[in-house]
Amino acid sequence: MKFVVNSRNAPMDIMYLLNSKASNNTLHTTVTDALNGDLILERKDRMNNGKKEVILKLPSTPEKMLIETKSIGSNRNFRSGSNFKVENAKVVPLRKWKVDLGSGDKEFVDFIKKFCRDIPKLKANGMLRRSPSGTFKIVLKPKLTSYKGEIIDSPCMIGTKTGTIEVSKDYFMKMSQQQRIATLCHEYGHFYKNPIIKLPIGDEVGADLNGMTLFVGNGFSISEYANAFKTVFDKVPTRQNEQRAKLIKGFGDKVYNGYYFGKPYNIR
Fold first, then answer.
1. Comparing C-alpha atoms, which of 175, 213, 212, 210 is closest to residue 196?
2. Is the dihedral of CA 18, 20, 24, 27 positive or negative?
3. What does the pLDDT read at residue 73?
4. Spatial CA neighbour of 213 closest among 194, 232, 239
5. Phi then psi dihedrals of residue 66, to 5 deg
């Protein structure tokens, strides 16, 4: 299944019904920028001879998107859509969790949405980029390095004194646009949110939960936040990261079940 959406940078939800004809069928869906092929988001749905409603959360879009769903066989190869159907596809207005976001939150998220869409064409030359008010700052480099010049295998990091975020273009190009946004929300959580709740700037758990609140509060999906940090944690499988992954999943489950912000509908 493949179709193009003329999104014109508008936020939206795309809803459709998956109808699987095969047992234990795993369907892999990708959303990409139709003009440059940059991955926006991806998801996998395990199907068992049944139907499943899917909602693609797209608060940030390019001019035109390509949406494609394929079946993954037992040999992990992609197959054609002969064993499943996509039905009743429609574009609907974006819906969000009811999270109280401040003006600084909005400026930051607008800033990073554009930055993450533009990554493929931006030069990783260390130039300082600022948000419209000048409050938020990002520096794009090929890779991140320590003060000793050693390579740091991480997508981004924030200065605990300056609030400047350094981003690795090499790492970001291996992530979806939404995963890039998720990691930047995490960094924002460190510097701009942890102190508000009386946590040290460097506290990782606070940054995880603050970042996720900002992410889902702007209409992104819970699962894509978890996917972003699974990508990072898989490279550094420490005990601390295992615990953080469980915490993110647990918090996401509570958000999904309406424990914190209400439940507009199933938006995994």
1. 210
2. negative
3. 63
4. 194
5. -110, 125
Neighbouring C-beta atoms of residue 138, cutoff 10 Å: 21
Contacts 24+ apart (CB under 8 A), 148-155: 153/235, 153/236, 154/232, 155/180, 155/183, 155/232
Question: Residue type for 77, please?
Answer: N
Which helix (H) or strand (E) segment holds residue 15: the answer is strand 12-20
Judge contact between 191 and 230, C-beta under 8 A. no
Contact 75, 43 (CB under 8 A): no
Closest CA to 194 of 186, 249, 266: 186
Show the tokens assigned to 3: 């179709």
If you ran DSSP here, which 8-state letter would residue 191 be given?
I
Note the pLDDT tens digit of each residue in 60-100: 999 999 999 988 864 445 455 567 888 899 999 998 888 88
pLDDT at 61: 97
- Could you write out the DSSP letters of every residue in 54-116? EEEEESS--SSEEEEEEEE-TTS-EE-GGGEEEEEEEEE----------HHHHHHHHHHHHHH
For residue 49, what pLDDT is reported? 72
* Domain architecture of the chain: domains with CATH: 2-92 (2.60.120.260), 103-256 (no CATH)
Alpha-carbon distance of 18 to 13, in angstroms, equals: 16
pLDDT in the model for residue 236: 80
Q: How many Cβ atoms are within 10 Å of 16's Cβ, its own excluded?
A: 21
Q: Among positive and negative, which fits the CA dihedral 192, 196, 202, 205?
A: negative
Q: Which residues of the chain have pLDDT under 50?
A: 74-76, 78, 268
